[in-house]
Amino acid sequence: MTTASPAVTADGRLVSPSEERKVIFASSLGTVFEWYDFYLYATLAPFFAALFFPKGNDTAALLAAFATYAAGFLVRPFGAIFFGRLGDLVGRKHTFMITIVVMGASTCAVGLMPKYETIGILAPIILVTLRLLQGLALGGEYGGAATYVAEHAPNNQRGYATSWIQTTATIGFFLSLFVIGACRYLMTPETFTDWGWRLPFLVSIVLLIFSIYIRLKLEESPVFVRMKAQGKGSKSPLRDSFLRYPNNKLVLLALLGATAGQGVVWYTGQFYALFFLTIFLKLGYLPAYALVGISLLAATPFFVIFGKLSDRIGRLKIILAGCLLAALTYFPLFHGLTHFINPALEEYNAKTPITVAATDCNFHVFIIAGKTHNSDCDKVKDFLTTKSGLSFQSLPAVAGQTVVTRIGSLELNGWDEAKYKDALKQTGYPATIDNTRINYFMAFVILFVMVLYVTMVYGPIAAFLVELFPTQIRYTSMSLPYHLGNGWFGGMLPLLATAMVAKAGNIYYGLWYPIVVALLTVVVGIIFLRETKDHSIEA
Fold first, then answer.
1. Which of 61, 104, 385, 533 is the most exposed place for a label (fewest CB within 10 A)?
2. Structural contact between residues 159 and 307, judged by C-beta atoms closer than 8 angstroms
3. Distance (Å, rounded) from C-alpha 194 to C-alpha 459?
4. Whole-number Å distance between alpha carbons of 73 and 131
C-alpha cells in the first residue's frame, strides 16, 4: 500500500492529522447545512404546488412548482462563476463564508412567505427570487468546500478526504426529509398546510449562526496561501478558465464526460425516486420519506468507500461504471418499485388498456402565469397520469372530437371529470393504495441500489475535478462544470421527466432523459478523459 504524502502549510509545517480532521469536519458540517437549506424546497416541491401557484390543474401546478425548483439549479453555474472567481482571487475560506450567509438568509425568508391566496401572483415571484439566491449561494459553496479540503489533504488520500464533502448533499437531503417528516408526523395535515411547513425553513437561522461560528475558526488553504506568496495567482480566473486552451477544453469535457451523467444519476436515485413514489404510485408522504431516508442512511458510507477506492484504482472508472449501471437498470428498477409499492395499480394497468386520441395536446415545461393546461387533452392527461398514476397510448385524433378516450371497453368523448372517475371505478381502478400489499423491504432494496449508483458517481467526483484543474483557477474551473452537470442536467430532471411523462402518457417515459445523458457521459468519458489521481495539485 502506498504511503500518503502529507499536505504542507504555507510556512513549511506539516498539516497534522487532527488539523486535517478539523478542516474536513468544519467544511462538511457547513456544507451539510447548505444542502439542507437548498433541498427543503426540493422535498416539498409537490406540496408547494398547492400553496404558491394557481389552482385548477394539478399537472400545471406541479410543473410550475418543479420549474421553481429548477430555477435554483439553473442559476447555480452563475454562482459558480461569480464566487469561483472570488475564491481564486481572495481565497477559499472567505468566499464560502459569504455563500453560507446568503443561503441561510434566503432559506429563512421562504419560511416567512405569504401564500398565493394572500398575495396572488407575487407569491411565485418572491419564491422564484429566493430560489435564485439559494442557487447562487450553492454555486459558490461546493467548489470552495471541495477545493479547501483537497488542498489540506495528503497527496494520496484526496479521494478519501473529499468524499466526506460528497456525503453532505445526501445527509442534507436526509436531514430535510427527517425534519419535514417529523413535522408532518407531529401535526395534523391541516396544521402542516396552514403554518407547520414554515418551521423547517425557520430552523435555518439556528444552523446559519452555528455554521458561521465553526467556519470562523478555519485558516486559509495552505496551497492557496503558498501560491499567493509565490506570486502565481491568476489575475483573471474567468478568462484563464474559459477562454484559454487547454483549460476551456477540460471544462467542457469535465461537463460532458463526468458531471452531466453524475448529475442525472444523483437526482434520479434520490429526488425523482421520491417524487415517483408519491406522485405516480400514490404512496403516502411519511412512508415515502422513511423509505428514501433509510436507503440514504444505509448507502451513505459508500461515498467514503468509493472515495477511498478511487485513491487506489482511479476516479474516472468508478464514475463511468456508476453511470453505465444506472442507464442499464433504471427501467427494471422503477418497474420494480411499482410492483412492490402498488401492485394493484400495476395489475390494473396491465389488464386495462387505455388510449387517448386528440389533436390539441401540448408539451408543457415552463408554466407561464395565466396559461395553464386548458385543452380537453391536457385535462385528460392530467387526470390519467398525475392524478391517477396511469399509463396510456396516444392515438391520432378522431374527426369531430376534441378527445376520445378508451378505458378498457368504455369509450369517453370530450372531458367530464365525473364520467372519467366513474369509468375508472367501473373498470376496477384501485383508487387508494393497499398498504397491506406493500413490500417495504424490496422497495428499500431497489432504492438502496439506486443510491449506491449515486455514491459511485458522486463519491470520487470532487477529487477528480480538483485534480483536473490548476490551483490558480481551480475554484472557478471546477465549479462551473460541476454546477452545469448537477444544476442543469440534474436539477432539470424532475421538471423535464414529469413533462415527458405528461406528454407521452407513460409514467416511465421520463427515465429516458437520465438514461441518455448517463450514456453520453460514458462515451465521452471513455474516449476523451484520462485518470487524474496521480496529478499534482500544487501551483
1. 533
2. yes
3. 39
4. 9
Which CA distances in Å does 436 have to 49, 282, 344, 429? 30, 14, 11, 17
Query: Average of pLDDT values for 387-404?
Result: 90
C-beta neighbour count of 437 within 10 angstroms: 12
Peptide bond into 246 cis (omega under 30): yes
Dihedral-angle region of residue 282 (phi above 0 means left; psi in -120 to 50 means alpha; beta otherwise): left
Domains of the chain: 17-342+436-528 (1.20.1250.20), 344-432 (3.40.30)
Give the distance between the most distant pair of CA atoms in the chain. 83
Q: Rounded to an integer, what distance in angstroms lies between the CA atom of residue 254 and that of residue 251?
A: 5
Which residue is associated with the grid cell 415552463? Answer: 366
228-281 per-position pLDDT tens digit: 676 666 677 778 777 888 889 999 999 999 999 999 999 999 889 998 999 899
Residue 370: count of CB within 10 angstroms of its CB: 7
Q: Hey, what amino acid is at 5?
A: S
Q: Which three cell numbers stand for residue 163?
A: 468524499
With beta carbons less than 8 A apart as the criterion, state whether 117 and 61 touch. no
Q: Kindly state the cell numbers that stand for 81.
A: 462563476
pLDDT tens per residue, range 18-75: 777 777 787 787 778 878 887 888 778 778 877 887 776 666 777 777 777 778 878 8
Indicate the DSSP class of residue 155.
G
Instruction: Specify the DSSP class assigned to residue 367.
Output: P
Packed helices 58-74 and 493-504: angle between N→C axes, nearest 10 degrees: 150
| Residue 341 CA from chain centroid, whole number | 23
Q: How far apart are CA 168 and CA 106, in angstroms?
A: 20
Burial 334-367 (b: 16+ CB within 10 A, else e): bebbbbbbbbebbebbeebebebbbeebeebbeb
- Of the candidates 99, 101, 67, which has an alpha carbon nearest to the alpha carbon of residue 84? 99
Q: Put the strands of the sheet holding 354-358 in their side by side order.
A: 393-395, 354-358, 403-407, 410-413
Task: Specify the DSSP element, H or E, that contains 119.
Answer: helix 116-119
First-to-last C-alpha distance (Å) of the chain? 27
Q: What is the CB neighbour count within 10 angstroms for residue 190? A: 8
Confidence of residue 359 (pLDDT cuts 50, 70, 90): confident
Q: What is the phi/psi pair of residue 352, to 5°? A: -120, 90
Closest among 160, 171, 440 to 300, alpha carbons compared: 171
Q: Which residues contact 186 (CB under 8 A, 6 or more apart)?
A: none
Element (H, E) at 411: strand 410-413
What is d(CA 115, CA 128) in angstroms, rounded to the nearest whole number? 13
> What's the distance, CA 177 to chain centroid?
14
> Which single residue is written with the C-alpha cell 474516472?
316
Give CA–CA dist 225/241, Å, rounded. Answer: 20
The span from the CA of 47 to the CA of 197, in Å, is: 10
